[in-house]
Design brief:
It contains two helices and three strands; from the N terminus they run ββααβ. It has 77 residues and is of the alpha+beta class. Strands 1-2-3 form a three-stranded antiparallel sheet. Strand 1 and strand 2 form a beta hairpin. It starts with 6 loop residues before the first strand and ends in a 12-residue tail after the last strand. The model has no long low-confidence stretch (mean pLDDT 76).
Length: 77
């Protein structure tokens, strides 16, 4: 992953959505991102409740990308 300034960050997990936050300022977003990570880790619903996010993240440009299941056995196609 390539990071540029302002900060772009991605959280990946094979069984949860990927969240991409763009154009964050590191100085103002670090604590908000740590709080987001705690919500993400604790979430078993495959989503993070948006109203629980810090204001810095609620106003950020973001994308939520749903997980993709990959069949590793090509004979099942």
């Amino acid at each position: 992953m390539h990071l540029r300034s302002p900060l772009d960050t991605v959280r990946l997990s094979p069984d949860k959505p990927t969240y991409l936050f763009v154009n964050l300022t590191p100085e103002e977003s670090a604590i908000a991102l740590l709080d987001f990570m705690q919500l993400y880790i604790k979430s078993d619903k495959l989503t993070v409740v948006w109203k629980h996010l810090a204001e810095q993240l609620q106003s950020a440009i973001f994308a939520k990308i749903l997980p993709v299941l990959i069949n590793e056995n090509p004979d099942n196609y």
